[in-house]
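Worked example

This section walks through a single chain of length 276. The input is the sequence exactly as stored; nothing has been trimmed or padded.
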Amino acid sequence: MEKSKETAQKIVLITGGSSGIGEGAVLKFADSGYQVITTSRKPAKVTQFDDLKNIEVWALDLADEKSIRDLAQKIEKQFGRLDVLVNNAGFGIIGAVETCSMEDIRSQFEANFFGTVHLTQELLPLFRKQNSGTIMTVTSIGGKMVFPYFGIYNATKHALEAVQESLWLELFSTNIRIKTFEPGFTQTKFATSGMRRGSKEIDFYQKTIEALEKTLEEGNSGTPPAKIGEAIYKAVHDGKNDLRYHAGRLATPLLLLRKFLPGKWFRKLVLTQIKT
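Given that input, the structure is written out below as C-alpha cells.
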C-alpha cells in the first residue's frame, strides 16, 4: 500500500555533498530520516556514503544546462515531489581582481551563480505544484561583505543573496520557504579542493596571495562542517519564514560590525587582517 503524503519519507536534494558543509548537511538530514540525494560531477568517486541506504549520489555539473535539466526531471520522475533543496555546490577563486581572467570570472559565476539559479528555476514548478517545501541556498558571510583577493567569489555570493531575497518576496503568498545560510569561517577542504587561483600571475600581488593560500591550507580554527550542517538542518525546520541565517566562527561579530560600523572603519578593520 502506497504511503500517504503525510507519512511518506521526506526528500532532500543537497548539491555538492561530497565534502565540507555539504557532507555535514547530508549526514544530518540522513540521520534524521530523510531520503537524501546529493550531487557530484564525478559520483563514482564519492564512496563515503556507500553503506547508508538513504543516501544516493547523482551526477550534476552546474556549468552544464543539460545536466541541470536532467537532474530536475529525474527528481520529479522518481519522487514526484521535493521537500527541501539545499543549494550548496560551488568553488572559490582566490586572486586580486586584476589576476582573474574573464574566463576565470565567467567560470566562477557559471558554477556559483548561474548554475544554482538555473537549478532553482528548474525545480520551482515542482515546489509550486505541491505548494510546500524549503529552498535553502548556502552563500557566505562574504555575501554581505567583501574581503580582498576574494572579490570575484564574493560577487557571486552577493548575487545569490539578491536572488534569494527576490524569491522570498515573490513567493511570500505561498507555503514555499526561501532561506539563505551565510557560514562564517569553516574547517573544510575548501582551501585545497574547493579553491582555484586567478590565472594571471602579477608580481605586485603574488606575495600576499601566497600568504593567504598558506593560511587557508594550514588553518584548522574554523567551525567543523558537521556543526554547520546541523545549523542548516535546524534553520530548515524552525517553522519560521525568516530569510537569513548564519553560523560558524566569526560570523556573528563580523556581520554585526559590517552592519553598524561606518564603511571606512570596517574596510580598515579588514585591511589589518591582510598580511603583505
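What to look for: The first strand starts at residue 11 and ends at 14.
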